[in-house]
Design goal:
It is found in: Cytoplasm. It comes from Solirubrobacter deserti. InterPro entries: HAD-like_sf, HAD-SF_hydro_IIIA, HAD_sf, Heptose_bisP_phosphatase, Histidinol-phos. This is D,D-heptose 1,7-bisphosphate phosphatase. Helices cover 32% and strands 14% of the residues. By secondary structure, the chain is an alpha/beta fold. A six-stranded parallel beta sheet has the order 3-2-1-4-5-6. α1 packs parallel to α5. The structure holds magnesium ion and zinc ion (ZN).
Length: 183
C-alpha cells in the first residue's frame, strides 16, 4: 500500500477522548478530577514524534453554568499538560468554549475552535487535518470545518453521525493514522 501523507494537524476533543469523562451533566472542575484514558498520552506522543501539530478543542459549558471558573479550567489544563509530560507527550495548543449552548460560534458543532487551531498552525485549510472525538458534535464540527473525522465509539454503540472512520480509542485512531503513513 502506498503511504499516505501525515495529517497536517490533529484536533482532539478532550473529555472522553484524552481524559475520562465526568458523569453526564458534570464537569472536571479541579485537577484532582482529571484522569487520562489508557493509551491517550502514548497516542499524543506518537503524533509529537511524527511532527504532527496537536490541538485540543473542548466545550466547557460548566464555566457558563457557574460550576467552574476560567482559573479552575486553567488549573485542570495545567494538570493535563503535567500528566502528558510525565509520559513524554505534549499538546501544541488548547482552545476551549466557555459558553452556553446556542450563544456563540465556538461551541462544537460550531467551527470556531477548529478555525483557531488552523490559524495557530498556519494552515490554509483543514482538508488534511483530522478531528478526533467521542461525540457527534465533534464529527459535525470537523466536517463543517472541512477536516477528516474519526469518531471514538465502542463497536456496538449507535453512530447517529457518519464519521470518515470509527475507532474505539484515541490510541487505536493514532496507530491507524500513523501506520498508514509509515507503511
Ligand atoms: Mg468528548
Ligand atoms: Zn463558545
Amino acid at each position: 500500500m502506498k503511504p499516505l501523507p501525515l495529517p497536517s494537524a490533529v484536533l482532539l476533543d478532550r473529555d472522553g477522548t484524552i481524559n475520562v469523562k465526568a458523569p453526564e451533566g458534570e464537569y472536571v472542575t479541579a485537577p484532582a478530577g482529571l484522569r487520562l484514558i489508557a493509551g491517550a498520552a502514548g497516542a499524543i506522543r506518537a503524533f509529537n514524534r511524527a511532527g504532527v501539530p496537536v490541538a485540543v478543542v473542548t466545550n466547557q459549558r460548566g464555566i457558563a453554568r457557574g460550576l467552574m471558573s476560567e482559573q479552575d479550567l486553567e488549573a485542570v489544563h495545567a494538570r493535563l499538560e503535567q500528566l502528558l509530560e510525565q509520559e513524554g507527550a505534549f499538546v501544541d495548543a488548547i482552545f476551549h468554549c466557555p459558553h452556553e449552548k446556542g450563544t456563540c460560534a465556538c461551541r462544537k458543532p460550531g467551527t470556531e475552535l477548529l478555525e483557531r487551531a488552523r490559524r495557530r498552525f498556519g494552515l490554509a485549510t483543514l482538508a488534511d487535518a483530522v478531528m478526533i472525538g467521542d461525540a457527534d458534535s465533534d464529527v459535525l464540527a470537523g466536517h463543517a470545518a472541512g477536516a477528516r473525522t474519526v469518531l471514538l465509539r465502542a463497536p456496538a454503540a449507535p453512530r447517529p453521525v457518519e464519521a470518515d472512520e470509527v475507532a474505539v480509542t484515541l490510541a487505536e485512531a493514532a496507530e491507524r493514522l500513523l501506520a498508514r503513513h509509515f507503511a
